[in-house]
Structure formats: structure tokens, C-alpha cells
Amino acid sequence: MTDVGTEPRAQTWSVPPDPAATRTITRRRNLPGGRAVVGGFLVTVAAVGIFAAYANASAGPTTSYVVATRDVAIGTQLAATDLALVPVDLPQGQRARAFDSPQVLVGATVIGPLSGGDLVQSSGVVAAEPGVEQLSFAIAADRAVAGRLRPGERVDVLATYGSGASAWTEAVLRDALLVQVDEEGSEALGGDRTEVLTVAVTEAAETLRLAHAVNAGEVTVVRTTGTAREGLLPPTYRPSGGDAPSASEVASP
Which of 4, 107, 126, 143 is most open to solvent, judged by the fewest CB atoms within 10 Å of its CB? Predict the structure, then answer.
């Protein structure tokens, strides 16, 4: 017997889930190996380096070097108006030969032609006192440090007079500035290599002595660049057993 006013309720059944349908098989993810970690680190370092290089390049040169403001002929003594500082990046080798201060070049003598905008390098200038005399003479390369002398070096000029036991040698110039070196002749043609040296002379008497030595004696040039000397240097030399030079010989051979 069914109660009046009571509606029948629908019967529902829950179906148990199918284990095969809900099960998902996943593959375990392995951690990166040692090579992968190192590789990633190197990539990161490379990226940082590229960024730093780009940043530095964008910033521009950080050092300025001296350039010529106009065309300058050989033999010209540089003035402040001939020089200017320009920011530029230079390789290590060029940095060692360039100048970062115009003041140190004022009064220097140009021994190689400069055009406006050229970088001024140590091989193209020599420091010389204003008003000094300059004298050139030819000499065989084997009597001038095998032809290895360069402008800007310091030299002694020695002259030998006579022959045999009576010969004697005088120091004509001491620690003179070598202004220019020019090559004359050619070994390829079978001749002895000769060089023309130009030296700065600070006293008129030394100019006379050097001119006499070149014409009357046999001249030898000695490199003295960077040589530290102590005490008085002998002005003359005569082989033992020979007569000592007279006062007139020492003053004017």
C-alpha cells in the first residue's frame, strides 16, 4: 500500500570508475647531467661577456692620444698649436709609442713627415733643445753599431788619428743626441752599407772638433743610450808605450 500524496523517488546507481580509464602513466623527468649544467654555465658567461663588450664599445674610447693638427715638415720644432688630444682606442704596441700629453712634445723636432690628424709616435720625433747646431756625416755601418742606431738615441763619437804605435783616439762628442739616420748605398749591390748620421751639437767648439775628425781621422760611433756613467771619462787614449799626447793634440788634433 502506497501512501497518498507521496511521489515515488527515482532510483539512482553510481557506477564505479574504471581503473584502466583513469590511470595515467607518466615518465619521470631526469635532472640535468653534469655536462648540461656546465654547458649552461658557459653559455651564461658568454652572454655576460658579450653584453659587457657591447657596453664598453658603446661607451667609446676612454683614453686620448696626441695627433697633429696640421701638416708638419721634417725638421720642424713642434709648438702647442701643432698638437691636440683625440680619444682613440689603440693596440698595446701602439699605446707604448704614443703620447697622452701634448706638453711633453712641445719643442721636439719632427724627423718623419706628419699630416694633419696623424698620430704622433715616438719614432717620428726627437727631443732637441732649441737653437742647437746639427751636423751630418757618413760612416760605414760596421763602425756605427752595425747600422742599428735609431733617431733619439745618445751616442759618443770617437776619432782615431795616426797609425801603429803612434796612433791615438779622442772622444770628440760625449752623449750627443742622434737626430736622424739615413741609409746610403746597398749591400745588395755588393757595396758596404753606409749611413749618414745627424747629431745635435750644443757647443760651437764641438762642431769644429767633429768636422775635423770626420775629415782627418777614422770615426767610430758608440751607443750610450741608457748608460749610467760614474766619474770622469778619459778624453783620449794612446797605446801603452807610446808618447802621451801634447796639450795641443788634446785640444785640436
Answer: 4
Q: How many Å apart are CA 229 and CA 154, to the nearest integer?
A: 13
List the one residue out of 224, 227, 232, 209 whose CA is nearest residue 159.
209
Cα separation, 139 vs 118, whole angstroms: 32
* Residue 21 or 50, more confident: 50
> Cβ neighbours of residue 10 under 8 Å, at least 6 residues apart?
none
Nearest-Å Rg of the Cα atoms of the chain is 42
Cβ atoms of residues 144 and 221 within 8 Å: yes
**Ramachandran quadrant class, 60 (left: phi over 0; alpha: psi -120 to 50; beta: rest):** left
Q: 188: buried, middle or exposed (CB in 10 Å: 19+, 13-18, 0-12)?
A: exposed
- Taking the C-alpha atoms of residue 118 and residue 86, their distance in angstroms, rounded to an integer, is 11
Residue 143 reports pLDDT greater than 60: yes
> What distance in Å separates the CA atoms of residue 241 and residue 233, rounded to the nearest whole number?
21
Domains and CATH numbers, the chain: 64-126 (3.90.1210.10), 133-251 (no CATH)
Q: Could you give the CA distance from residue 76 to residue 125 in angstroms, rounded to a whole number?
A: 10
Q: If you average pLDDT over residues 114-142, what whole number do you get?
A: 84
Does the global pTM surpass 0.70?
no
Query: How many residues are there in the chain?
Result: 253
State residue 84's pLDDT score.
Answer: 95
Q: CB–CB of 102/80 below 8 Å?
A: yes
Dist. CA 68–CA 85, nearest whole Å:
9
Q: Is 119 exposed, middle or buried (0-12, 13-18, 19+ CB in 10 A)?
A: middle
Sequence-distant (≥ 6) Cβ neighbours of residue 166 within 8 angstroms: 242, 243
